[in-house]
């Protein structure tokens, strides 16, 4: 009986401890709230990307990269993609709280002469952890003109 009580108490503590753990962060792109915007007056293209953390664990030291499929964006912004929040070529890390959201936004001055709708699906977002491992990737499907 004594062993049963000890085993039960140990099992209870393990269950409680495991239940209190937040687990690993789970970052995904919010496809519905992410979009590309073109402002003709300013000649400016802006990328808005919203991230969701579907875990209660904080996600720290993340970096992001925009990648372009459209030839005009590759020509005018970058063939290799654009590291978000780049300062002197180095990415600046950001965090997403547990069960929280984070909003990335970057604007680019470009010469644009085609309908903005052409960009729908031509910009993707990749999120990396502190070790440079890809943890999320999604394509921005919405493009609007302001």
UniProtKB/TrEMBL annotation:
Domain of life (superkingdom): Bacteria
Stretch forming the signal peptide: 1-22
Key words, A-Z: Signal
UniProt-recorded name of the protein: BH2846 protein
